[in-house]
Amino acid sequence: MTPGPTPDPEIDGEPREREFPPLLEQMGGVQGVVASTIPVAVFVVANIVAGLQPALIAAIVAGVAIAVWRLVRKQALQPAVSGLFAVGIAAFIAYRTGEARGFYLPGLLFSAVCGLAFLVSVLVRWPLAGVVWHGINGHDQSWRADRRLLRAYTFASILWTLVFAARVVVQGWLYNADEETWLGIARLAMGYPLVGLALLGTVWAVRRAGREPSAT
Predict the structure, then answer these.
(1) Do the Cβ atoms of 141 and 153 come closer than 8 Å?
(2) Which end of the chain is more exposed for a tag (fewer CB within 10 A), N or C?
(3) Residue 12 lies in a domain
(4) What InterPro entries does UniProt report for this protein, alphabetically (predicted)?
(5) Would you tell me the crossing angle of helices 29-50 and 192-210 to the nearest 10 degrees?
């Protein structure tokens, strides 16, 4: 007899210690999430007060300071290094174009790519929310055999698609309108707050699927 899909810890009552924390841990915890927004916030304020060149320097200095701070506290450096790299790319584009809005272009393109990837994953019935979630937790992809989980992760992937699409539409409009200040504010407001909502939606969908009768 062919064995059924591997039991999912989130669904079948097994230990849940790996249920949802790993994604947040890989982002550096709550401190890492907050710290990653600081260079962007510094750039927004410095650009308003002092102009483009000082803002670029201030954003890079803020990114370096965060990396040093995490190093001194012996915390994971990967989130800080990734954030510093992203800030460096954004600063380089802004410097080369001579426009503050160039600082936000990498994030805008990233949102467009992610939104398209999530949309395609739904259409081909490999919802990316499930692929990523189980990959992070070290599970295989046998969850697709469970219709409960397939529906749950499809819902979650649509939610993520909407989050990225909202960023592209709003920030793209502000980018084309050359509204630098409002673009920076939108970048902050539509960053981790929307990601947090999408994560909560993913958690809700998966837990709800766990309370439904098996439909494999």
Answers:
(1) no
(2) N
(3) no
(4) UCP010219
(5) 150
* Count of structural domains, the chain: 2
Q: Is residue 8 part of a domain?
A: no
Q: Which residue has the tokens 């600063």?
A: 91
Q: Using the 8-state DSSP alphabet, how is residue 102 labeled?
A: G
User: Is the full-model pTM beyond 0.85?
Assistant: no
Instruction: Name the residue with tokens 């190093």.
Output: 71
Write out residues in the chain with pLDDT < 50, as ranges. Answer: 1-21, 215-216
Distance, CA of 48 to CA of 46 (rounded, Å): 5
Structural domain including 69 reads 20-98
**Spatial separation of the C-alpha atoms in residues 176 and 191, rounded to whole Å:** 19
Structure tokens at 157: 């992937």
Token reading at 82: 């990734």
Among the listed residues 124, 139, 143, 136, the one whose alpha carbon sits nearest the alpha carbon of residue 199: 136
Q: Give the tens place of pLDDT for each residue, 70-111.
A: 788 777 667 677 778 888 999 999 999 999 999 999 999 999
